[in-house]
């Protein structure tokens, strides 16, 4: 009897081990065994740099890695100028450049138009130009939210900044953070790229990673869930243990 129970005990121990989440060291060791072609990685990096409009970095990477950009780097100039305007808070200048480059874009993308107008309103509030902000909202933004509750909610959050002496410290202060400018700049950049390449391949792969994690966690009742280190922060994808 003692001999027959030993394998059973060992099997249970083995099953338990197989369902335990791998440690950071074990996971990194597995990743080290995955072979990736350097050329594929270099093309992926170049695709990201070009799509996001990092011209100087793309040109330097072209020289260092010998990777040919998917498009001539000179074609990035207009997108870069528009991005720089938005990141500097010069929204109306960015809109003028955008209309010159793609006149039909804002007519066809009302959501993007609203976000650009909203960003200009934010810049007016940042500069404490209260009367101009209210007039601009009345003339260009109020009608946008009449049939869209989400747009109205965003507009109300923006106008709520006017109620605070120090709007940066208010519950809506995130709208005045540089990341808000970057968010709008990225949205404009993505819209300009729609006809060429909707989004960087790297971004697509990261979205696929997050989708795959969700699928692995959604298992039917009674089925053991796959254990794996879940990526929650892309800047440090491997959890500390």
From TrEMBL:
InterPro entries: CRA_dom, CTLH/CRA, CTLH_C, LisH, Ubq-SigPath_Reg. SMART domains: CRA, CTLH, LisH. Residues 1-24 are annotated as: Disordered. This is Putative lish motif-containing protein. Residues 12-24 have a biased composition (Basic and acidic residues). It comes from Amblyomma americanum. Pfam families: CTLH, LisH. Residues 75-132 form the CTLH domain. Residues 1-11 have a biased composition (Polar residues).
């Amino acid at each position: 009897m003692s001999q027959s129970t030993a394998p059973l005990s060992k099997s249970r121990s083995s099953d338990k081990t197989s369902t335990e989440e791998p440690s950071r060291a074990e996971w990194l060791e597995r990743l080290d065994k995955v072979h990736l072609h350097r050329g594929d990685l270099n093309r992926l990096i170049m695709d990201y740099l070009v799509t996001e409009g990092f011209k100087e970095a793309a040109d330097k990477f072209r020289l260092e890695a010998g990777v040919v950009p998917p498009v001539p780097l000179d074609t990035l100039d207009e997108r870069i100028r528009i991005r720089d305007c938005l990141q500097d808070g010069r929204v109306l200048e960015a809109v003028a450049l955008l209309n010159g480059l793609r006149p039909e874009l804002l007519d066809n993308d009302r959501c993007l138009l609203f976000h650009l107008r909203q960003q200009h309103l934010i810049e007016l509030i940042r500069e404490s130009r209260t009367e101009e902000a209210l007039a601009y909202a009345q003339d260009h933004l109020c009608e946008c939210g009449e049939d869209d509750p989400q747009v109205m909610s965003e507009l109300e959050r923006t106008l709520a900044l006017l109620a605070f002496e120090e709007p940066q410290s208010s519950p809506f202060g995130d709208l005045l953070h540089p990341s808000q400018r970057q968010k709008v700049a990225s949205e404009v950049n993505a819209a300009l790229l729609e006809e060429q390449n909707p989004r960087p391949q790297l971004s697509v792969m990261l979205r696929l990673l997050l989708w795959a994690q969700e699928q692995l966690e959604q298992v039917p009742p009674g089925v053991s869930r796959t254990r794996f280190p879940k990526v929650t922060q892309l800047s440090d994808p491997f959890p500390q243990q």
